[in-house]
Task: structure prediction
Amino acid sequence: MMNELQTMELKYLKSLANQYRNIAAASTEIINLQAILNLPKGTEHFLTDIHGEYEQFNHVLKNGSGAVRRQIDEEFGNTLSNKDKKSLATLIYYPREKLDIVLTEEDNIEDWYKITLHRLVQITKRVASKYTRSKVRKALPKDFAYIIEELITEKSDISDKEGYYNEIIHTIIRIGRAQEFIIALSYLIQRLVIDHLHIVGDIYDRGPGPHIIMDTLMNYHSVDIQWGNHDIVWMGAACGHLPCIATVLRIAARYGNLDTLEDGYGINLIPLATFALDTYQNVNCDAFAIKYNTDYNTKDLSLDMKIHKAIAIIQFKLEGQVIKKHPEFEMDDRLLLDKINYEKKTIMAYGKEYPIVDTDFPTVDPKNPYNLTPDEEQVMTRIQQAFLKCEKLQQHVRFLYSNGGLYKIHNSNLLYHGCVPLDEEGNFKSVNVDGKKYSGKGLYDILDNYARKGYYAKNDPAGMRKAQDYIWYIWAGPNSPVFGKDKMTTFERYFIEDKETHKEVKNSYYSMLDREDILNRILQEFGLDTKKSHIINGHVPVELKKGETPIKCDGKLLIIDGGFSKAYQNKTGIAGYTLVANSHGMRLVAHEPFESTEAAILHESDIFSDSTVVETAPTRIRVSDTDVGAELRESIKQLELLLQAYRDGTIIEK
Result:
């Protein structure tokens, strides 16, 4: 066994020797990696529950949840007025748009360029200081890489440094490159202020621009995503799973966001609109009001209500088919279409008879209520093909798969969207998945596996179909970690006025968030050190209005959903939490509602953000304390073995 290990190690070292061909090359890399270990850790930015609100998302991304403004405050202190600091911050967030305004307002544009470029260079130097020159070089915009490197690198051998730097800036202005240079520096500052971005779920639904958010994330320098239940249902829809497609359509109709599908993704909804117009022409659709925002065109209201009802009925039928196929889902309480008494206009639910507000269902056969009509089948087949063939949606969903998962462990933090299902005693809940019992981390892993199989297992059509049913279960199942409630009472909210039927009971997890023993058990389950680790959680809006707090168990757990979505802001009282973790510790940021990008540019109105320090590191956190640090230490160890192999002649230098 020992010989086998030694042979494998020698093979690896010989492979490494192709990259570091002699003692000098290996030694240089060891010194370089050792130096990186001693640098301050990069800043991590955590966002969750964005729900299509792309303007606020883009602004928070640009300002790094206040990180840019903090850098400006620390760099310039009292030497700049608050007005000048605001102007500089807005320029960094929106350089192109701000320059257009400045060019019409400034009398002496050359002076403004000179002052602004000096300030931007100072901030760039500051934000670049925690990275290696090599990492900064990789981030530099190609057109200005050499000039920026000259400006932000100390020149100890030049006697008149100020004259040297001034001459570079003067030349940039003289040859007419100041605007492009300002734009390049602004984007570089945004890029360097945040080293890595975590999205803790729910990019999709409710708001108008999830496709814009996905485009932004695909171009972001470093990001991971923990899937939320609203992401999962879109992933299922992209797989072609009919109940998921119907759910995505219903939610889009409900929130007046069908444009996201038609214009954002180019999915043709004419078959659905034509079907709804014909079938529901003289049908009561009052229960299917649209929750629209200010951008909604109310001329579409009547048609959208018909589409809303048509697709809701299709959804309930398709869900019923899946539930009947999978008794292990334990979701028979969701089978309600067959419990309607059309003569009495009542429904049997939870062992009780309730009046029902609407029984005008032209496509429901009371004897076979879960069967689609031929017209419904035809509509869904055509829309299914549109989802499967939509290249933009498929690109976005592939990105979610390749950069995401149901949870992530990163730098001693456990990130997940919903919960770790617990029973009433606080033990990990045992869940039946395809005939076997899973709990805790095992439940997350098996469901993550099914989510991937539902998209990728094209060589196993039957297995793929079953996996897609599990994707739908992850969206709405009673023991799904990312849903975390006993049921989704969509049907009841449309049709039963009695609010006792609308209740969705949260998993016991949510009542135990201040119990350190429970949180420690979860951290241990995922292999984390309970003394220095945190759980970072999204999904359930923190109702600040009711005195709820996002900080649980002295900061061991942080729930950072505070209502990015406008639909939640009346309930939460704020417009979302974000989290910033840098080399000094962790800072929770509570955001006020965002007016608009236009207001941010014209009035320099940054989002007002109230910042709370969750944890201050006793000494500055270094790269050596992170996951990257562990990888670098392993690389150093291997390089030192290579060095030894060169020195004792086991491997010959080249």
